[in-house]
Write a structure and sequence with these properties.
The protein is an alpha+beta fold and 494 residues long. It contains 14 helices and 5 strands. Strand 1 (157-164) and strand 2 form a beta hairpin.
Length: 494
C-alpha cells in the first residue's frame, strides 16, 4: 500500500506544479495586457514593476489553485488509466477509494492552506496592490518630445521642437509657450538649440537654451480687451536656462488607510465587525424612515388601518367615516388651502425619502459586498475539494493523459463552474438572491456531478466510450426497424 500511495502522490504532484505555474503565467499575462497602458512610458524603476507583478501573482492564486487542481487531477488519473496502472491496482485487490486516501489528505491540506491564505494573506496583499496600482495609474507619463508636435504634459507650458538628436538630450528649433497666467500665451520663447538634463534631486527638468529670443506682452491686470498702451518686450539671449517643475511626474504614495475598509482587504474578524456595524446602521435608518412616515400620515394611517374589515375599531379615532377625504370632511372654502398644504407636505416627504433611500441603498450595497466576501473565504477552499472530486474520477473514466483531452475537459468544467459562480455572484450583488446562495451556487450545482462521476469511476463505467454509445444507438435503431416491420406486416395481413 505504501508503494501504491507513493506512486499516486508522485503522479499527482508533478502535474500539479507544472499546471499551477502555467495557469499563473497565463493569468499574469492577462493582467499585463489589461494594464499595459498604465505601465508603459512612465519611467518606473524595475523593482516597482516586479513588486506589482509579485502582488498580482499572489492575488491570482485564488483562481489558479482550483483550476490547476482540476487539470492536474484529470491528467494524473488519465495517465494512470491510459497506462493500465489503475487496472493493476484494482486487480491487486485495492479499491480506488483506498488508493486515493493519501491524495485526499494532501488535497485537504491544500484546501485548508487556501482558506488560511484567503483570510490572513490575501487581504494584506490586496491592500498593498490596490495602493500601488493607484499610484501607478495616477502617475503621468515621462516627458517626451516628438519632433514637430507640441507637448503639453508639463502644466502651464507647451513645448515644440522641430528635431532632436538620437539620445533625445539635444532639441533643435525650440518654441515654448508659457501660459501659466491664463489660457492665452503672453510669453513666447524661441531658441535654435536646447540641452535637457535633470536636477540632482530629479524634481526639476532644466532646459539649457542657446541663441534665442523671448517675447513678453505685459497686459494690465484684469484686462480682457486690447490696449494700445500695453507694453511689448523682446529679449535676445546667447544662453539661458529654463527650469520646469517635474513634481507631477513623480510617483506619489497613497495612504493605505484610504482602502482599509474595502471589502476585499478585510479578514473574517474584520468582516464580522463591519457586517454588525452596518446592520445596526441599516436598522436605525429603517426605523427613522418609519418614524418619518408615521408622523406625516399619523391620523389617516391609524384610522384607515383600524377601520379595515376584520380589524377592531379604534375608539380614539374621532373622525367620521368618509369615501373622499377632501369632499366629505373639508369645507368648500378651505379645500384649496388644504390641497396646497398636502402637496407641499408630499413634496417635502418625497425629497426626504429620496435622500434617505439613496443612503440606505449605499449601506445595503456595502452590507451585501461584505457578506459576499465573508463567504468567499470559505468557497475558495471548498472549490479546491470540489474540482478535485470532479477531476479525479473524470480522469479515471476518460483514461487519457498528456495535455490534449485533459486540458479540453478541464477548461469545459472550469468554465461551467466559473460562469455559474460569476452569474450567481452578480445576482447576489444586485440583491435578487442572498449572498450565501450566490457564493455557494456553483458548488451546490456541481456537487451532484462530482458524486455521479465518482460513482461511475468506482463501477468502471465507460461513460466517455464512443464505441459503447455506437452499439447502443445501433441496437435502438434495430429495435425501431423491427417495430415498423411488424406494423407493416400486420397491415398487409389485414
Amino acid at each position: 500500500m505504501k508503494k501504491v500511495h507513493l506512486l499516486i502522490l508522485q503522479a499527482f504532484i508533478k502535474p500539479f506544479i507544472v499546471t499551477f505555474f502555467i495557469v499563473m503565467f497565463v493569468l499574469l499575462m492577462l493582467f499585463l495586457f489589461k494594464y499595459i497602458d498604465d505601465l508603459i512610458g512612465k519611467g518606473f524603476e524595475w523593482y516597482t514593476i516586479m513588486e506589482l507583478i509579485g502582488y498580482q501573482c499572489v492575488v491570482q492564486i485564488q483562481m489558479a489553485m482550483p483550476l490547476s487542481m482540476l487539470l492536474s487531477s484529470i491528467m494524473t488519473f488519465g495517465n494512470l488509466g491510459e497506462s493500465y496502472e489503475l487496472v493493476a491496482i484494482k486487480a491487486a485487490g485495492v479499491s480506488l477509494r483506498k488508493a486515493m486516501t493519501p491524495l485526499f489528505v494532501l488535497v485537504a491540506i491544500f484546501a485548508t492552506s487556501s482558506f488560511l491564505f484567503s483570510d490572513y494573506i490575501l487581504p494584506v496583499v490586496n491592500l498593498k496592490m490596490g495602493t500601488l496600482l493607484t499610484d501607478v495609474r495616477n502617475k503621468k507619463a515621462d516627458f517626451l518630445i516628438k519632433p514637430g508636435i507640441f507637448n503639453n504634459t508639463i502644466p502651464g507650458y507647451s513645448i515644440r521642437a522641430r528635431g532632436k538628436n538620437k539620445a533625445g538630450t539635444i532639441l533643435y528649433d525650440l518654441m515654448i509657450y508659457d501660459h501659466r497666467g491664463g489660457n492665452t500665451a503672453n510669453n513666447v520663447l524661441m531658441a535654435k538649440e536646447g540641452y535637457i538634463y535633470n536636477s540632482p534631486d530629479n524634481n526639476y527638468m532644466i532646459l539649457k537654451l542657446k541663441d534665442g529670443i523671448r517675447y513678453e506682452e505685459a497686459r494690465t491686470k484684469n484686462s480682457k480687451t486690447y490696449d494700445p498702451r500695453q507694453q511689448f518686450t523682446r529679449f535676445k539671449f546667447k544662453e539661458t536656462e529654463q527650469k520646469f517643475d517635474m513634481g507631477s511626474f513623480q510617483q506619489g504614495k497613497t495612504d493605505e488607510n484610504l482602502f482599509k475598509s474595502h471589502h476585499a482587504m478585510l479578514n473574517l474578524k474584520q468582516l464580522d465587525m463591519y457586517i454588525d456595524s452596518n446592520h445596526i446602521k441599516l436598522d436605525s435608518m429603517g426605523k427613522a424612515i418609519s418614524r418619518t412616515l408615521d408622523t406625516r400620515y399619523n391620523i389617516y394611517s391609524k384610522y384607515f388601518s383600524a377601520n379595515q374589515p376584520g380589524q377592531p375599531k379604534v375608539k380614539e379615532a374621532k373622525i367620521k367615516p368618509f369615501k373622499n377625504l377632501i369632499t366629505d370632511l373639508v369645507p368648500q372654502e378651505q379645500r384649496s388651502q388644504v390641497t396646497m398644504n398636502a402637496l407641499n407636505q408630499l413634496n417635502y416627504l418625497k425629497e426626504d425619502l429620496n435622500g434617505r433611500t439613496l443612503e440606505f441603498k449605499d449601506y445595503k450595497s456595502k452590507d451585501i459586498r461584505y457578506r459576499i466576501e465573508w463567504h468567499r473565504k470559505f468557497t475558495l477552499a471548498v472549490s479546491c475539494l470540489l474540482l478535485f472530486a470532479i477531476g479525479a474520477p473524470l480522469g479515471a473514466i476518460i483514461r487519457k493523459g498528456g495535455l490534449g483531452l485533459p486540458v479540453v475537459m478541464a477548461i469545459i468544467f472550469f468554465l461551467i463552474y466559473h460562469i455559474i459562480s460569476t452569474v450567481a455572484e452578480k445576482t447576489a450583488k444586485d440583491g435578487a438572491i442572498s449572498s450565501g446562495m450566490g457564493m455557494w451556487m456553483a458548488i451546490i450545482v456541481l456537487t451532484p456531478l462530482a458524486a455521479f462521476l465518482t460513482y461511475k469511476s468506482t463501477t468502471d463505467s465507460a461513460l466517455f466510450d464512443i464505441d459503447q454509445y455506437k452499439l447502443k444507438i445501433e441496437a435502438a435503431w434495430r429495435w425501431v426497424k423491427e417495430k415498423f416491420s411488424k406494423k407493416n406486416n400486420l397491415k398487409e395481413s389485414h
